[in-house]
Design a protein that fits this description.
Largest sheet of chain A: 6 strands, mixed
Shape of chain A: elongated
CATH architecture of the largest domain in chain A: 3-Layer(aba) Sandwich
Number of strands of chain A: 18
Order of helices and strands of chain A: EEEHEEEHEHHHEHEHEEHHEEEEEEEHH
Oligomer: heterodimer
Helix content of chain B: 40-55%
Structural class of chain A: alpha+beta
Number of helices of chain B: 23
Radius of gyration of chain A: 25 Å
Structural class of chain B: alpha+beta
Number of helices of chain A: 11
CATH topology of the largest domain in chain A: Rossmann fold
Helix content of chain A: 25-40%
Largest sheet of chain B: 10 strands, mixed
Number of domains of chain B: 4
Strand order of the largest sheet of chain A: 7-8-9-3-10-11
Chain lengths: ~350, ~800
């Protein structure tokens, strides 16, 4: 999806649910989209499934700009290419689990009528519902309904599965089971995108997109500073600038009264304390995903780009960082807490 | 600041305008149907009777030999007589260009511009104040194919013709008043002239009268009083050597087609009864669905402290607003349509319409129903809906209602090798059984009434068929005077295609009561004994046999009027002034009240009494080929007529058997048209009900439509799914309508027959009604579902599933 903007208008004014979101999803990936309530997760998924249209920007799946399709064509395209799993399962209450699973095959006509029942039974077996095929959705548990919904999503063997809060209405055990099913789908070569607010479940995915106020948080920010509030992460996302240094270069740690923040995205920072002998003692090596704040630097410390390869940083300039920390004292507290997660690996 | 309760009501009303429109339309259509019926009921009979009384209709009509204006003036002095009027009646024919002759009754009054009794209402043109001017009654005016100012050619006794100028069109509401009920539809064209014109029509003693019309001072609805006045008038006539042919009595409000109006109103009551239920079902269904949609809001209101009574109050207030809006739409519309219908009936039944007006009783009825019915209908769902717990309302899950599959659900779930689409449609159809039941009941009742209309028509035509058994000839001819039967028969037999000719005798007689007084008129018909042209339906006893002397068979009306009469009894009739005893050999069924008192005897018996043995004025002609069409009968009749006229015999009237059938059926056609209108009205209520149900079903299932969209359902599939559901409801309702149609047909036929014929219906049914309704209901169901189906396809998935 490229530069996708979604603005909702109502009597109260305009509300930007997605702001210039650009993201790529690759075949075979297991991606989670995480964010707080109202962050725009569902809007993002709805853009991808064609359930809603963007105000601007494009969404392409393979080579198809899906939002150029009519409602009818979109429906048929969706039936062939996407399996959608909803938070509230959305099984048709008048159909049995088996019929619910057979329904997409009937609607698209992808499999011969004689094959449909057998295939649906196989899918139900795969999600652990064999023997329950003749039950109505209301007669089974929430977890079982969601399993049936996953089976339905797989009915036409679509390459992409998109699940919007699939565990939102399930207990933790059932949620784990559902995620097990998704993991199996990845193994079977599917691409799976899951929206969740459960960080622990998101960790089971290969990539996580963090959304805040309709914008994607820079993944390096999220990774390096997980203890920051999402709004703070978003602030950082807006204020970081990429900077590169050649391998072994001496880094300018005393710039602007030492008030800055670096996030390592490639290479590493070697933090060294100058010794009286004229040599240096390695305090810490900060690899990709680490951060370093100017106010952590002690007198006599030096910083170098790792000797092996060039260093890529995301840098928050001094004035911005100082102002931000002054305005929001909690930021520095959050940074310190994050440091506890990623302590200097060297001598301190 | 508006109170929150009103705020919520207004928000519900305006926030979902489609739903509000649907609810208001559902209530309005029920109110409209009821309003139309109530307004017709209030206006039709009242205007008919008021209009009839306004023309000062005769209470006593006496057919006589000729008498003078002086005698009329003397009769006006008789105690009890208010107005008296002499009329000269001349039955002849007029020419419809180029060469068709049709029967016309011409009446001349002393002052035709302003008759005192049986007043004419001028519709167009002028009254006939000068010689050779004529005005014609509007009902059969079209048959003359004439326009105002045209010359109308009238046949004279000598065989010559005379041209009269048509100067006006009038309405004579008394047509048929003294020919027995149903006479209006059998009456020929009616013309009115002054006495000078009558003189030019070759009438002997043209300024004398042969009919006397009288009104009475006292209560005309009292038959004993009428009879007393009539007896005194007859005495005066007889004292003046005037021979009395027949006497008939009628009250001032007894319009000749009152029987028909009563039959219409009887149907109206039966159908109105059903429409009350239909409307009730419709409103209940709609409001139940409304409450179902509001469950979550009820939960929210409860969660913020709303009490059940308070919440119920909000919905009842909303219903009140819906009801009032529906009333504002339905009331003027129902008046408009009711008055259109009354206006149509007025022309068809030759009655009066006193114009558009407000009917307070109907307005009050509609207002009360508009206010109360939605409340009654909504009370159970509102009460039940507001009983829901906050948790249930907000989660949408009813804890105390585990999924239950009934017999029907189990049967449907066994549908395996069927299209999944059909399975979904079927299960959706039977999903909300309460709503389905009410919808199906509404549609079924509408359908049953619709089907019943066809069956009622058959029942009515059964009566016509019954009458026709007494008029089986292809051609009925009336000559200007009695001719020898063998002479006429020999002549007619010369016409190619004629198989048989019969000369019949006919007499207007009067029943002589036990006290010697003369009472009601009896039409006495006398075909040759064992004539094949009468196939009587015998109720008791036997028919007239050859060799019977003064044997008589009486119509069933005698048994109603004189319950003590038995086969073997003797009755006394006055025929041509002479009293004769007749032995009753049997009772036959004709057409109840509609046919008046009638009796059959043998030609030989009557001809002997009237001293006309071997002679006759009336002839029945039968074709060699059976089953002639109307035009073939006309052609045969014309050939006979021309042949007789060439032989110097004047034909006064020629009517085909099919003409008689059509005239008899004509009155019923008004009834059938009215029935059809009412059944369309009920069908309208039913189909609006179905449209509402389908729309509500789709509204309630928007989420499912979204899910179907999400998993690949195309527009075509969604359309088919909704249309199929509508068609299933339609077909289920058709089956029920077909079953319900039988008792409803019987009920309606009996109600009409009781009003028309004074007895239960000669019940019949036709597959036509069932087939037409099948086609109609499938069409209705599909068209009622098209809008909801289109709405379903227009629902974009984001409206449904995007942001829950």
């Amino acid at each position: 999806m490229s530069e996708v903007v979604k603005v909702f208008k109502n009597a109260g004014g305009e509300f930007t649910a997605l702001n210039r979101v650009t993201a790529c999803f690759y075949a075979g990936e297991f991606v989670s989209v995480v964010g707080k309530s109202g962050s725009g997760k569902s809007t993002l998924v709805n853009m991808l499934t064609g359930i809603d249209h963007p105000t601007s920007g494009t969404v392409r799946v393979s080579d198809i700009d899906i939002h150029r399709l009519s409602e009818n064509d979109m429906s048929v395209w969706r039936g062939n290419n996407l399996g959608i799993v909803f938070q509230f399962f959305q099984l048709l209450p008048t159909l049995t689990l088996l019929e619910n699973v057979m329904l997409p095959m009937y609607l698209i006509g992808k499999y011969a009528p004689a094959e449909r029942e057998e295939r649906a039974l196989r899918l139900l077996e795969r999600v652990g519902l064999r023997g329950m095929e003749d039950k109505l959705p209301a007669a089974v548990s929430g977890g079982q309904q969601q399993s049936a919904a996953i089976a339905r999503a797989l009915a036409n063997d679509p390459p992409i599965i998109i699940a919007d809060e699939p565990t939102g209405n399930l207990d933790s055990r059932a949620a784990e089971e559902v995620f097990d099913l998704f993991t199996n789908l990845i193994d079977a070569g599917k691409t799976v995108l899951v929206v969740t607010h459960d960080i622990s479940l998101a960790k089971r995915t290969s990539r996580t997109l963090l959304l805040s106020d309709g914008e994607l948080i820079n993944p390096w920010v999220a990774h390096a500073l997980p203890r920051l509030a999402h709004s703070e992460m978003l602030w950082l996302t807006h204020h970081v600038q990429p900077v590169s240094y050649p391998a072994g270069a001496l880094l300018p740690i005393d710039d602007e009264n030492s008030e800055w923040l670096w996030l390592v995205t490639a290479g590493q920072i070697d933090l060294v304390e100058a010794t009286t002998t004229g040599g240096g003692r390695l305090i810490a090596s900060l690899p990709g995903g680490s951060f370093l704040a100017g106010r952590e630097i002690q007198p006599g410390w030096l910083a170098h780009a790792g000797a092996d390869r060039p260093l890529e940083l995301l840098v928050v300039a001094g004035a911005d960082f100082t102002h931000w920390c002054d305005q929001h004292p909690a930021v520095w507290t959050g940074l310190k807490q994050s440091r506890r997660l990623h302590p200097f690996s060297g001598g301190q | 600041m508006r109170r929150p309760r009103w705020q919520k009501v207004l928000a519900d009303l305006w926030g979902n305008r489609t739903r509000s429109l649907l609810v208001v339309a559902s209530i309005a259509v029920g109110l409209f149907a009821l309003g139309v019926m109530a307004a017709i009921y209030a206006v039709a009979l009242e205007d008919l009777q008021r209009g009839y009384a306004a023309v000062n209709p005769a209470n006593i009509a006496i057919q006589t030999s000729l008498f003078s204006q002086g005698l009329v003036e003397r009769l006006q002095q008789v105690e009890g007589v208010q107005d008296a009027q002499g009329v000269r009646l001349y039955s002849t024919r007029l020419l419809v260009p180029p060469d068709e002759w049709i029967a016309v009754d011409i009446q001349a009054f002393h002052e035709p511009a302003n008759p005192t009794v049986n007043r004419l209402v001028l519709i167009e043109g002028n009254m006939p104040t000068s010689k050779d001017q004529i005005v014609i009654d509007r009902y059969r005016f079209a048959d003359t194919k004439a326009r105002l100012g045209d010359q109308i050619t009238v046949e004279l006794r000598s065989g010559r013709t005379r041209k009269l100028t048509l100067v006006g069109i009038v309405q004579d509401q008394t047509i048929g008043a003294f020919r027995g009920a149903g006479g209006f539809f059998n009456a020929p064209v009616q013309g009115y002239v002054n006495q000078e014109t009558m003189e030019s029509l070759e009438q002997p003693l043209p300024k004398r009268y042969n009919s006397l019309y009288l009104t009475v001072e006292g209560n005309s609805a009292d038959p004993i009083y009428l009879e007393e006045v009539a007896r005194e008038v007859r005495r005066v006539l007889e004292d003046n050597q005037v021979q009395i042919v027949s006497t008939a009595l009628r009250s001032s409000t007894d319009h000749p087609n009152l029987y028909l109006a009563r039959a219409l109103l009887a149907v109206l009551i039966v159908i109105g009864f059903f429409v009350v239920f239909l409307s009730g079902f419709l409103i209940t269904n709609t409001l139940q669905a409304l409450i179902n949609q509001q469950v979550a809001q009820i939960g929210i209101m409860k969660s913020v402290g709303g009490r059940r009574v308070q919440i119920a109050g909000i919905y009842l207030l909303l219903n009140l607003v819906y009801g009032l809006l529906a009333f504002l739409i339905a009331m003027p519309l129902s008046f408009q349509v009711a008055f259109w219908v009354v206006d149509y009936l007025t022309v068809q039944m030759n009655s009066s319409f006193f114009g558009y007006r407000l009917l307070p009783e109907v307005i009050i009825l509609e207002a009360v129903i508009a206010v109360l019915m939605p409340q009654f209908a909504a009370l159970p769902p509102v009460w039940q809906g507001t009983r829901i717990s906050v948790q249930e309302a907000l989660s949408g899950i009813r804890q105390d209602h585990p999924p239950h599959q009934g017999w029907l659900d189990r049967r449907i779930s066994r549908l395996r090798n069927t299209s999944l689409l059909l399975v979904i449609s079927l299960r959706n159809t039977f999903r909300r059984k309460g709503r389905l039941l009410l919808t199906v009941l509404t549609l079924s009742l509408g359908g049953a009434v619709f089907i019943a209309t066809f069956n009622v028509r058959v029942s009515l035509l059964n009566y016509v068929d019954q009458i026709i058994r007494y008029f089986l000839a292809d051609v009925n001819i009336t000559l200007d005077r009695p001719y020898r039967i063998d002479e006429v028969a020999a002549l007619v037999q010369q016409v190619p295609g004629v198989k048989m000719v019969e000369g019949w005798a006919f007499a207007r007689t009067e029943l002589v009561k036990a006290d010697g007084s003369v009472g009601e008129s009896v039409a006495l018909l006398a075909p040759p004994a064992e004539s094949p042209l009468v196939q009587p339906i015998l109720l008791e006893g036997r028919w007239i046999n050859a060799g019977d002397q003064n044997a008589i068979a009486l119509s069933e009306l005698f048994r109603e009027r004189f319950p003590n009469l038995r086969v073997g009894d003797t009755i006394r009739l006055q025929v041509n002034g002479d009293e004769t005893d007749w032995v009753i050999v049997g009772f036959y069924q004709l057409a109840g009240k509609i046919s008046g008192l009638a009796a059959y005897t043998s030609y030989e018996s009557l001809a002997k009494l009237t001293h006309q043995s071997g002679r006759s004025i009336a002839y029945r002609v039968v074709s060699v080929r059976p089953g002639l069409s109307q035009s073939e009968q006309q052609a045969l009749g014309k050939a006979v007529e021309q042949h007789l006229e060439r032989a110097g015999i004047t034909v006064v009237d020629m009517t085909t058997g099919k003409d008689l059938y059509e005239n008899a059926a004509e009155g019923f056609d008004v009834l059938t048209a009215f029935l059809l209108f009412l059944s369309l009205l009920t069908a309208l209520v039913g189909s609006i009900g179905l449209t509402g149900t389908m729309s509500l079903n789709v509204m309630e299932r928007t989420r499912e439509v979204g899910v179907l969209r999400a998993i690949g359902a195309s527009d075509r599939i969604l359309m088919r799914m909704v249309l199929l559901e509508g068609a299933v409801i339609g077909l289920v309702s058709w089956v029920l309508a077909s079953l319900a149609a039988l008792p409803i047909s019987k009920l309606m036929s009996d109600a009409i027959s009781q009003a028309l014929f004074g007895g239960p219906a000669n019940f019949g049914y036709t597959p036509l009604g069932f087939m037409v309704w099948l086609a109609a209901v499938v069409l209705l169901s599909i068209s009622a579902s098209i809008m909801p189906a289109r709405n379903a396809t227009r629902l974009t998935i984001r409206e449904v599933l995007a942001y829950e």
